[in-house]
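Exercise 7.
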Amino acid sequence: MTSVYNVLAVLEQAGFERLPKPLTIVGTEFDFEAAARGTKSSHDLVLIATDQVPPRRLQRLIAGLARSLDLAESRRPVSLVVLGGVAARDRLELERYARI
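Solution. The predicted structure, written as tokens, is:
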């Protein structure tokens, strides 16, 4: 978890706001390790996951989040930080919904 907090600290220094867990979009909860949203020049939603989350689960989470953001008519870009890395085949699927 220390790495997650390090990423959050960098994001907060850049003007991002930490979001509560679990992340809730249009009444649906998403259990990412952490999330932050841009408040100044960036309006990105940044999600943080570790390689402890199975790749299929992470793909389902990010796809579901993308659908919920569509329902909310959000135009906020989504970025995903995966601590520990992700296999190339799994990365392609994730990139359908977020910047990795």
